[in-house]
Amino acid sequence: MNTYDVVVIGAGVAGLNAALVLTRARRSVLVLDSGQPRNKPAAHSHGFLTRDGIPPSELNELGRKEVEGYGGEFIQGEVTAISRGFTVDLADGTQVKARRVLVATGLRDELPNIPGLAERWGKDAIACPYCHGYEFADRPIGVLYDAHHALLLRQWSSDIVFFAQSQDVPERVKLESRGIRIVEGTVSGLLVENDRLRGVELTDGRCIPREALFLKPNFVPRDDFLKPLGYDPALTGPNGKTNVDGIWVAGNVGNLMANLIASAAEGSTAAAMINFDLVQADTDNAVMFSHAAEREAHVMRHRHSPV
To answer: Domain FAD/NAD(P)-binding: where (predicted)?
Structure first.
């Protein structure tokens, strides 16, 4: 079984940037990649300096090549368990050992049960205004159930429709003051023509013409395999150190609102902290070895000294 200084679980920007920092620090690093990135449906990434508009897969491939250039290794597989120590188990039976572990597995988007929504996700049914609002500027935009999201998107378009589930809309005055139209009723589906969103359908038969639908899904961190170790996300420190000694987190698995560039920064910070932790461990081991050697030399000197 191979042993690495650090095993990075997750090959998004958080995991890759961490691996880059660690390999440049001359640590042995293995990156485990499930091959199921959250942003896979998206055609382009935005807000990442010097890489604005790049396809997510291309950004990840560039990062992977940089990590490999410094000696980092990759294995594709899904992690099923981690034992204290650390032995990391993959779904195919592979096991690897690590001195430290960085978890950068991200999250999954749990969507409302609306027919057709999953098929449009990442295209014209989306979550983040800062990631995709510019691409739908000055076009008809719908916002599902979140009034604060609607107020935010008013920055990009004057044609905003807020879909409310009931007549009770506490932010009604704010919405109407910004010229945001409120449509009450339950959304039943999406009208799609030529692979483009054309409208939002309601259970009463109405169809409201829209070219984009923004919503906040339920964010679910991919951290189930950490729970048996006693992992508590509420106890994670500002640099990604968890309450489980030797395990760090970076990116959306620990920070649900982090965008690409923030996730990359968290990976970099966590990597520096991990390297410092390893330096301390290496130093402690060296001191212990030195003391043991001195004691052994002292014993040998007294054993052979004349009485």
So the answer is: 4-140
What does the pLDDT look like over 152-174, one tens digit per residue?
999 999 999 999 988 899 999 99
Q: Reply yes or no on domain 3-109+218-291 having CATH 3.50.50.60.
A: yes
Q: Where are the alpha helices (DSSP H) in 96-166?
A: 117-120, 129-132, 147-153
Mean pLDDT of 29-50: 91
| Interacting residues of 20 by C-beta distance below 8 A, sequence separation 6+ | 63, 66, 67, 70, 72, 268, 271
* pLDDT value at residue 300: 60
Please give the pLDDT value at position 201. 98
Tell me the C-alpha distance between 188 and 207, whole Å.
10
User: In whole angstroms, what is the distance from residue 247 CA to residue 232 CA?
Assistant: 12
Task: Report the top-level CATH class of 112-214.
Answer: alpha beta
